[in-house]
Every structure is written in structure tokens, then in C-alpha cells.
Amino acid sequence: MSDPKDGKTIHARWVKSQIGSDRRQRATLRGLGFRRLQQRVELQDTPAIRGMLFKVRHLVVVEGA
Q1: How far is CA 62 from CA 34, 36, in A?
Q2: CATH of domain 6-64
Q3: pLDDT reported for residue 62
Q4: Which of 4, 53, 58, 63 could form a disulfide with 11 if both were Cys (CB 3.0 to 4.6 A apart)?
Q5: What is the reported pTM?
Q6: Per-residue CA distances from 65 to 7, 12, 22, 27, 53 (Å)
Q7: Predicted pLDDT of residue 64
Q8: pLDDT along the chain (65 residues), means of 10
Q9: How far apart are CA 4 and CA 58, in angstroms?
Q10: How far from 10 is each of 16, 19, 49, CA to CA, in Å?
Q11: What's the rounded Cα separation, in Å, for the pair 2 and 18?
């Protein structure tokens, strides 16, 4: 697992509305730090974060991996 001090990050942007999504997917978006549409967040590159992004891959765009 990567250490938060490694400096490895992923930039993600929320591009599609959560309306009609499963409540677990909405919770995943909140867990990733998204609060509003078109918001960009910088996340640590860990297997857990990658798994969360995979669950909502139809709602977000990963801009840097």
C-alpha cells in the first residue's frame, strides 16, 4: 500500500449527476470528498480509493493517475 507521504495522488472530477444513482454510489461520492457537480478533488493513490473510483466510474473522470 502506498504511504500518504509518498506524494502519489489522483485528480478526479465529478461530471455526471447522481440523480437516479444507488444510495451506495451517492455515499461513495461523498466519501471521495465530492460536494457538488464539476468539482475536482485530489486523492491519495491507494487501492481503497481506486476501488471507490471504480464503483462510480460512470459519474467521475480521473484526470491524473
Answers
A1: 13, 16
A2: 3.30.1390.20
A3: 95
A4: 63
A5: 0.84
A6: 12, 9, 26, 23, 11
A7: 72
A8: 68 96 96 97 96 97 83
A9: 27
A10: 18, 25, 9
A11: 30
